[in-house]
Amino acid sequence: MKAVLGTVIYKQAEVFLKDLLTSVDNQQDKDFDLLITNDNYTDEDIERLDIKNKCDYYLNLRPLGCTIAQTRIEMIKKAKALGYDLLVVCDADDTFVPTRIGAFKEAYQLDKSYAFYYNGLVTEDGKTVLENMPKTVDSARLISQSNFIGMGTTAINLHMLTDDFIATLSEGDCPVFDWYFFTRLLMDIGPGKLVDNADTIYRIHDSNQVGTSHNVEQEYQVKLTHYKNLAKRYPYFERLYQDLQKLDIDSIDTSHDRNGYWWSNILMEDSYEI
């Protein structure tokens, strides 16, 4: 099988770049390639950081002025065009355990029927960020109102993605593209599977889209955009979109126990067919 580790680098995360590349070098399984997609580094920056000599493939998107979503879509397209079976993804501000590549490759080889594979998320001091993640995900309902799956914690089975499917992903062009992408996979392509011994080490800081606080107004606006994008294709999300518009967010009690996932302050009743 052919595996590639893909990441999108951007100048705002340069302080984390050395640690990211160290994680890549420290992988116990060395049989994989590295695809670096450049968002906004200048040519001079790339030369200064010696990026092209540190990866197998370099994709320069800076001249295109891509959005967050577009950079991820182009990375996926490139990995598929290069003939890889499995795209393991990491964010530019993350590091990960030395067994991550090997664990994902083993999971893929054992069962290729999954559209994606996902791993745990821990802080730098080893604390679990997302508790009680299910062993498998076979319905978008599990991530419809909160989320535990992101690009930085997943590997994508590229054989299950058609060119036609990839061409439609631009419909979800918004800051939470990861959430849109994995929802689309679950709705249209196939299930996901949890993989042990592949943890991502997550740096929680305000530059993350989720941030360090749980702002209800921010979550409300994110979900409006997210549901509106998905409503173009799925009646289930059209219903959630309509319900969310009617919601009085000032009445939401954020002191109750949350499920620990991203975007989980606003949890509505959901009895719709999916």
Question: Your description of this structure?
Answer:
This protein is α/β, with parallel strands linked by helices and 274 residues long. It is built from 8 helices and 9 strands. It has helices at residues 14-25, 43-48, 68-81, 100-110, 163-167, 177-188, 216-231, 235-246, and strands at residues 3-9, 33-38, 57-60, 86-89, 95-96, 116-122, 136-137, 154-157, 192-201. Strands 1, 2, 3, 4, 5, 6, 7, 8 and 9 form a 9-stranded mixed beta sheet that branches. Helix 1 (14-25) links the parallel strand 1 (3-9) and strand 2. Residues 207-212 have low confidence and may be disordered.
Counting DSSP E segments of at least 2 residues, the number of strands comes to 9
The biggest sheet, with number of strands, parallel, antiparallel or mixed sense and barrel status, is:
9 strands, mixed
What would you call the structural class?
alpha/beta
Q: Percent of residues in helical segments?
A: 25-40%
Low-confidence stretches: 207-212
Please provide the ordered H/E string of secondary-structure elements: EHEHEHEEHEEEHHEHH
User: Total number of helical segments?
Assistant: 8
Choose one word for the global shape.
Answer: globular
Percentage of β-strand residues: 15-25%
> How far apart, in Å, are the first and last alpha carbons?
34 Å
What does the average pLDDT come to?
Answer: 93
